[in-house]
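#struct-pred

JT: dropping the chains for the assembly here, can someone run the whole complex?
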Amino acid sequence: MKFSRISLVLSLFLVLFTATVITALFTELTREPINQVAIRKQEKLIRSLISEPYDNDLVSDKIMVTALGDLGTGDPVPIYRARKNGHPVGFVILPVAPNGYNGPIRLAVGLDAGGRILVVRVIEDRETPGFGDKIHRQKSDWINQFTGKSLTELTAGGAVDQISGASISSNAVIKAVTRVLEYYQREKEQLWKKMEK
Amino acid sequence: MEKDGKITNAPKLQILLQKNPLLFRLIGLSPFLALTHSLLLSLTMGILFLVIFCLTSSLVSATRYLIPPPAALASHVVITSTVVTVLDLSLQAWFPDLRTALGIYLPIMAANCLILDRTMVFASQNTVSQAFKDAVLHSLAVLVVLILLGSFRELISHGSLMKDLFLLTNSIPKDSGIHLIPGTHGFPLAKMPAGAFLSLALLIAAVRSYKKTP
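RK: done, full complex below.
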């Protein structure tokens, strides 16, 4: 049998067009539920970052700040504030480490009111599996070294080791966390007073 | 690719035992083997495979007069990946934890050579009902192997069955499932990738020796 080029092109076009329409329809249909899942996941993560007791609704006590030099991104970054009886307890900020090995690494940093690190976690990254992915809690204990460190300890150096084989990834995280601490030290008065518009 | 358009005439047991795609032809293994470390994931994968395979085969068969043979491979891949994408999105929306546990192995089904083989050889040359029946038989054969491997590997490595049932909904507590051998840490080799191949080899050996003795 012989097939004309037109019929070949037409049939493929038809198949591809239908496939695109169906995929687009389903993407639209599932967009809202998938967003909800992502939001719930992020809220759960944010609550897990404050180990001190607090009594306000952490997730809704949120402000957006923009500080390119300090937080690694020009986009507004959310900050969540934990309070007990109205007094500052802790602080969750989601900075970006712009210079990861394969692009930016999105982090979540939990601080106590004095500026000491409670927990650091990786939200999203594209680091190399087997090397850079050791910054994940699931792959190694490395990221737990941040817990309890203060800005002076971090800037003195040696408080958090590099990962051998992944010095770029680990240094990017260390620098980003250090910048967040500096930012907090400098701006904490304003950050605690600022009200959501 | 094999040249048989008559497989529907073969007895059903034959696809299960003598022509089982996982035990004898050994194609399209990776997504199945990778997830058989737990019974729940094996079951999920088996059922997803059944849905994907039946839909794809029926669609390919329904459009068989529309698509000229030179365009067949391309359009079959597109049809399979559309079906897989639709399922993937639905899982992400309504069973997010389960979807995370499946990882890359659900999207990879779009290029599964077992499905491609059946659509190219069989579905594109037969009626919709024949293609559907063929897909059901083949996926049931796969499902049986997955259940056997899944229970074997989970039992050896954890002493339990369906231990990760909590992936389905949040209302199920984390330590549900049947603990057949309580208080054991199990034999971790069974849940590692090597354990997948070893378990499959044991199963193949068992089935082949059964076949030899009449």
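JT: nice. The CA atoms of residues 80 and 110 of chain B lie 5 Å apart. The two ends of chain B are 29 Å apart (CA to CA).
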